[in-house]
Inverse folding.
């Protein structure tokens, strides 16, 4: 059976008919339609380039809040996956959850710890333990990334550091912008690190 162009066809007895046969004969027009794929290829190329530029090979993207201006650093390391404590001029946030207001922390005197921050960091440790309960080779490192605004007073940062230590996070990294490329990096700041 030969390959035929799809469409309406008259029955065999009407093919020679003057009424219907002529009508179907006139309906055969060229069905070749040209599709210009050049714009589509250009658009796909732009999308691929955009996605490659946005790709992070470390797997961790540090969400930078708009109200936090990070300090610049000349030497740093690549950011590792760890809970992020963000200290802005107005609030302290742990992995997207607000735990304290900076004004209240500044007005309180005496105690160094921040109970809500300690509780949230302990919850993060419990979550880490639950995720890695079947992986005995993975050891708890107690790492935390601190993302502090340039203008935050040191007494607030000191209270956050103390609360991190009480919660069991002893490996502290400070997020900073790489002075050469303006990319977020971490500067070691834990005990015994240089």
């Amino acid at each position: 059976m030969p390959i035929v162009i799809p469409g309406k066809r008259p029955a065999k007895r009407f093919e020679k008919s003057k009424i219907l046969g002529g009508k179907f004969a006139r309906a055969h027009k060229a069905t070749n339609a040209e599709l210009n794929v050049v714009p589509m290829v250009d658009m796909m190329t732009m999308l691929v380039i955009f996605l490659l530029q946005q790709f992070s090979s470390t797997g961790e993207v540090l969400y930078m809040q708009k109200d936090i201006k990070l300090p610049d650093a000349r030497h740093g390391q690549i950011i590792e996956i760890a809970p992020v404590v963000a200290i802005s001029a107005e609030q302290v946030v742990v992995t997207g959850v607000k735990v304290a207001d900076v004004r209240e922390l500044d007005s309180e005197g005496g105690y160094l710890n921040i109970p809500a921050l300690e509780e949230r960091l302990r919850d993060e440790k419990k979550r880490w333990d639950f995720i890695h309960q079947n992986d005995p080779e993975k050891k708890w490192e107690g790492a935390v990334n601190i993302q502090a605004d340039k203008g935050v007073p040191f007494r607030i940062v000191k209270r956050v550091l103390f609360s991190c230590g009480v919660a069991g996070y002893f490996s502290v990294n400070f997020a900073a912008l790489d002075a050469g490329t303006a990319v977020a990096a971490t500067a070691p700041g834990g005990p015994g690190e240089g």
